[in-house]
Amino acid sequence: MNRDAVVHLIDDDAAVRDSLTLLLEQEDFVVEAFASAEAFLTSEHSQSRRRSCCVVDIRMPGMDGMTLHAELARRGNVPPVIILTGHGDIPQSVRAIKAGALDFLTKPVAAATLLESVRNALGECDRLMSQDHIALTAAARMALLTDREREVLALVAEGLANKEVARRLAISHRTVEIHKARIMYKTGVDSVFELVRLADATAARS
């Protein structure tokens, strides 16, 4: 549902803010509009973990759209970003895509184009939030393991057989089997494949 999502609209042009806000609200999106990047960053909305995306003008007085995107990345809170650009800003917009922006749209943007881009951005937000949930769950499960169990898991995740894990850690084959059984019990997984996914999810968050 669109009402479950927030579109953060950051543009110094009041006419653009008003027209895009009206368009998005007609599609039942919740819109939070800001006249500058600084206004957005100092608001509580910039720290929100709610399902959201940002539609950002690339050229604004003070902090521009590229710098805003970089600042959000530095803070570790990067909702999908759609860049609004004029024709002369396209090379800069390409750099924004390379820096992680989801899309760039040329002004004046067609209604259908903007709505499609916003829906894609919110879909990407869903994917990122799901990944974050998986990583948090993995980290919580990993916290239950002993140091030795983490060592065993790391080697299993490398694809080593029990005998090779035993040789690397100078322990018996049977001890490796016991550690693996305990790891599976503590983490709630049922296979080595799931163990490897758990290790990968934990590594991705670190």
Topology, element by element:
Blueprint lengths: L5 E5 L3 H13 L3 E5 L2 H5 L10 E6 L7 H11 L5 E5 L4 H9 L4 E4 L4 H32 L4 H11 L4 H8 L3 H15 L4 H14 L1
Parallel strand pairs: 1-2, 1-3, 3-4, 4-5
Helix pairs in contact: 5-9, 6-8, 6-9, 7-8
Which of globular, elongated, flat, extended, rod-shaped describes the shape? elongated
Write the CATH architecture name of the largest domain: 3-Layer(aba) Sandwich
Please identify the structural class as seen in this structure. alpha/beta
Give the helices and strands as they follow along the chain: EHEHEHEHEHHHHH
The tally of helices reads 9
Arrangement of strands in the largest sheet = 2-1-3-4-5
CATH class membership of the largest domain: Alpha Beta
SS strand fraction: 5-15%
Largest sheet at a glance?
5 strands, parallel
Quaternary structure state of the chains depicted: single chain
- Overall pLDDT score: 84
Total domain count: 2
Specify the CATH homologous superfamily of the largest domain: Response regulator
End-to-end CA span: 32 Å
| Low-pLDDT segments, ≥5 res | none
Helix content: 55-70%
| Radius of gyration based on Cα positions | 23 Å
Please name the CATH topology of the largest domain.
Answer: Rossmann fold
Number of extended strands = 5
